[in-house]
Amino acid sequence: MTIQISNLSFTYPGRKQPALKGISLEVRKGEFLGVTGPTGAGKSTLLKCANGIIPHFQEGRVDGEVLVNGLPVSGSTLAELARVVGSVFEDPEEQMVSSLVEEELAFGMENMGLSRAEMEERITSCLQMVGIESLRYRKIEALSGGQKQLVVLAAVMAMRPPVLLLDEPTSALDPLGTERFLSVLTRLNREYGITIVLVEQKMTPVVPHLDRLVVLDRGELVVAGPPRQVLADMKLMDKVGVEIPELALLYGLLQERGFSLGDLPLTVPEAEFQLTRLLGGDIKKCQPGDVGAGRRN
Amino acid sequence: MSAYNRGESFVHRLSPLTKMLWCAAVLAVGVAFNHPLYLGAVLGTVICVALLGKQGRELARSLSGLGVLSLILFLIQILFYHEGRVVLALVPLGHGYGHVTTDGILFGLAMVFRMNSILLSVFVLLATTQPREIVLALVEKLRVPYDYAFMFTTALRFIPVLLAEARVILAAQETRGCAVSGHNPLRKLKAYIPLAVPLVMISLNKAERLAISLETRAFGSGNRTSYYECRLAAADMLCMVIVVGVLLTSLTFSFLGYGRVNL
Amino acid sequence: MIEPLIRIEDLHYSYPGGDEAVSSIDLDIGRGEIIAIVGQNGAGKTTLAKHFNGLLKPTRGRVVVGNVDTRKAAVAALARKIGYVFQNPDHQIFLDTVAGEVRFGPSNLGLSPGEVQRRVDQALEVVGLSTLLGADPRSLSKGQRQRVALASVLSMEPEVLVLDEPTTGQDYREGKEIMDFVRDLNRRGHTVVFITHDMNLVARYADRVVVLCEGRVLMDGSPREVFGHPETLAKTHLVPPAATALALRLRNLGFGHVLTIEELMGECISLLGGDRKVVCL
Fold first, then answer.
1. Which distant-in-sequence residues (6+ apart) come within 8 Å of A201 by Cβ?
2. In chain C, at which end, N or C, are there fewer CB atoms within 10 A of the end residue's CB?
């Protein structure tokens, strides 16, 4: 198990209600896990318990244990954890310290005390991993929001962490930027085997990329499982306040009327295929797309 | 980074060390002399270096700000310096204050030239040097602890970010009828609270989030290496020799009494 | 011919030292409309919106609000007519009670204390925050703070409400609540303009959508019309809502134009003959 969370509880100082209540969760190596839930559910808090910000930067009462790649979070320093888990947050401006892309990529490695040769090699490979080789010598202020966030991602990957934690990284991006960022994440996950935990509010663009979806509500883990399964329980999603993607809603509405699409569709091409089949149309005429996108779980 | 202006010039290519040495020299010479003619010459050389660094346009632009400051400084000096021959008796404030004297004018000019020389030299340094080069020079060669150098450049880096936030806050409060333009000074002061409070809150939040991000990238974890090198080229050595030479010569002259006026 | 509330004539705007952010925009905003402005980041949405209340003055062309040219009026003066709710409520919040925040706007208008109080009470009620009037805004969730910001603009009783990305950064429920309040306000007579990235929001709440691409108006029409042209939308990297996109792909099966999943369901049911057949797959 890459991430092992055992009976984790956390209360912020001065608060009566715990932000996390007895959370137990295991994340497999190479998994792409989504975490969602309404405001105040504890999603960001959970990430902070996994990257060491809690308890090393943020005070509060911690119960239970978190192990990342075998390292106990409370027993390891932030520097040790930085080699194992990388974190990307919402606003790229609040994560960057340099004026040049190349310089930003070097920053984390400089902190780690790597040699110049090693840094050179990693800068090249990380730019390639994230697909932004052309941005190497650009000034950061001239980049778009989506590009900046990709630079942050590359800079974090330069530390070669096997685990990546992301807290609503596409919040400020437009649909195109969001789509690009998510496809880079999927590539990191599938081609490089990086374990990813992604906290997001918007479900529709995110779910096709996930292996599993975890839903938190008021500090508790409500449900965890393959996204199609989790979203199929629409009454629960509605009660918790999680966005039900339009296509999942279609699946549910048809089911209520006694029709079955088979699997819950996560993308438009999937839904097209399934509806065509349902309506007895010619499925060979379906438009190409990422049919079968989203993990088959 | 607001102050750095990208460009290709001799001054841009010089190592930050050289430029920092030059700034220190300007400061030293500026203090060593107090005759306006000598100080004017110092200012002249600073302007020449600025032009050499292709900062002419920026120079002209900052002249308005500096000009106002200079004028205020000059007026303060001539109004309150009362030694020497009286040239113009303005407001008789008693005890000789309010009289414009020759010495006062000289002193005023000297102050103005000195201030402008020092400020402009720092301006040229910041305008022709990338922040990370400054940090590098400070940390690698001058043994300044990395944390302090980092604080300095990060603060500079966030100036435009915070200015942008301030502009949004201003717009947001204006759309609630909060009149920030206008001439009543008391009103203007009151109007600063709806600007200051959000700005402070936002700045603090940004600082915290940046700190968290840095921690997760192993900031402050021990021995730090650097991807970039701070190199000194032949041109740098030459310039530094010239600067030190001029500095020593000026200090000698000053010691011998030249360029110093008994004021 | 009813006079439009806001008339934009050949609007051009360039930020100082930059290229034209918006060019040749002609737009009329009529009373009671609820309009969405969409486009990718950098297309000029916020730039355009900031011209409505005079935050930006055109570098060419003009913007007329009522019968006032915005170039001749101060923002604070136009604030009586046009309310602008910024994307981040923290840019506005500076007092330590919700009531105080909501009171700030109308108290700048020189009204009687009684009138100010009435407006405050009403605004708080509209956004459902009457029970929280003594709370410190900073202790509230982002969604609640957004509602405080909305109330503090509403209390000025503007005719037009401009909202910059009202649901970004909110959770699903909070976003829906804000938009429901906004729709309610529109039904009560407020004219609403909102900027968004979310095409579902456009489909469900807007009766007109203006699509911007690189500073120009690409399309202007009802959501149904606009979403019927995905190829044009693709120029500004936008995609119609899933329901619309799906229906378009299934045109050959007899699907018509739809805006929402509910409409799509309707099409499905009618195509399935309306019986309760259970089709096993």
1. A36, A168, A171, A243, C170, C171, C172
2. N
Instruction: With beta carbons under 8 A apart, name residues in chain B contacting C138.
Output: 201
| Residues B215 and B238 both lie in one domain | no
Domain interval for residue B217: 145-231
- Measured between CA atoms, the residue of chain A closest to residue B226 is A110
Residue C80 phi, psi dihedral angles, 5° rounding: -70, -30
Q: In what order do the strands lie in the sheet with A71-72?
A: A20-27, A3-11, A61-68, A71-72
Q: Do residue B98 and residue B166 come from a single domain? A: no
Residues in chain A: 297
Asked if residue A72 has a cis previous peptide bond (ω within 30° of 0), the answer is no
Reported as a single tens digit per residue, the pLDDT across B102-143 is 777 888 888 888 988 898 888 888 888 887 788 888 888 888
Do B47 and B74 have their domain in common?
Answer: yes
pLDDT per position as a tens digit, A104-140 = 999 999 999 999 999 999 999 999 999 999 999 998 8
Tell me if C105 and B168 make a contact (CB, 8 A cut-off): no
C46 neighbors C164 (Cβ within 8 angstroms)? yes
CB-based contact, A1 to chain C, within 8 Å: no
Is this prediction's pTM over 0.90?
A: no
CB A35 within 8 A of CB A20: no
CA atoms of C88 and C98, how far apart (whole Å): 16
Q: Does C41 touch chain A (CB under 8 A)?
A: yes
Chain A CB contacts of B160 under 8 Å are: 141
Which of B132, B216, B221, B225 would best serve as a mutation to test chain A binding (most A beta carbons within 10 A)?
B216
Task: With CB atoms and an 8 Å threshold, state whether B227 touches A113.
Answer: no
Q: Looking at the structure, tell me whether residues B44 and B111 fall in a common domain.
A: yes
CB pairs under 8 A between B and C: 69
Is residue B16 domain-shared with residue B120, that is, in the same domain?
yes
How many CB pairs below 8 Å do chains A and C form together?
110
Compute the nearest-CA separation of A105 from chain B (Å): 10
Contacts of B157 (CB under 8 A, 6+ apart): A97, A99, B1, B131
Residue A136: CB atoms within 10 A of its CB come to 15
- Domains in chain B: how many in total? 2
